[in-house]
UniProtKB/TrEMBL annotation:
Taxonomic placement: Bacteria, Bacillati, Actinomycetota, Actinomycetes, Propionibacteriales
TM helices/strands, residue ranges: none
InterPro entries (UniProt xref): Flavoprotein-like_sf, FMN_Rdtase-like_dom, NAD(P)H-dep_reductase
Record domain NADPH-dependent FMN reductase-like: where: 1-139
Superkingdom of this protein's organism: Bacteria
Record-given protein name: FMN reductase
Length: 178
């Protein structure tokens, strides 16, 4: 069973990379699946808007994204919150695909002023329309509590919260795989 940790921010000095690395570390300690870190920024998707129901794309960057996403059985979306919403580059990357997401599990790790709570709630609506099934538990890292000098420094309780998210994700992913 393979689960991707997808970092959605593409900003040059993004905190998402450090959050994603922390999530990956927690996931590897948790076990139950093979975990891989992916960064939307590494796929040079730009503003591609093509879609396909047969996983065949004209743009090489979209085809590469499709092929990589399709390899996984479940996902952890690592999302910031920008202006009370989800990040546009991540939303665009998710919207490019459909068939690749359908029938798979997803969990959310948000980070920002309020732990990206609003972005996570928006993601829940988006992924439901793609046929992804979201786990109930989410992790919300808050700038005031879980970061020091622009680096990730989660409160000790976050490790247990992350474990709960991963427990639910691994279980749901296994169930969906049958």
């Amino acid at each position: 069973m393979k689960i991707a940790v997808i970092v959605g921010s593409t900003r040059p000095k993004r905190l998402g990379s450090a959050v994603g690395a922390w999530v990956l570390e927690q996931a590897e300690q948790h076990g139950g699946a093979e975990f891989t870190l992916l960064e939307v920024a590494d796929f040079d998707l730009g503003t591609n808007y093509e879609q396909s129901t047969d996983k065949s794309y004209e743009e090489p960057s979209t085809q590469r994204w499709s092929d990589v996403v399709d390899e996984f059985d479940g996902y952890v979306f690592v999302t910031p919150e920008y202006n009370h919403g989800l990040p546009a580059p991540m939303k665009s990357a998710v919207d490019l695909l459909y068939t690749e997401w359908a029938g798979k599990a997803v969990a959310f790790v948000g980070y920002g002023g309020v732990g990206a709570a609003r972005a996570v709630e928006q993601w829940r609506m988006v992924v439901a329309n793609l046929g992804l099934l979201g786990v109930r538990q989410a992790l919300h890292l808050q700038m005031a509590d879980d970061f020091e000098d622009d680096r990730v420094a989660p409160l000790p309780k976050r490790t247990g919260e992350m474990k709960s998210v991963l427990d639910q994700l691994v279980e749901l992913t296994a169930t969906l795989r049958g």
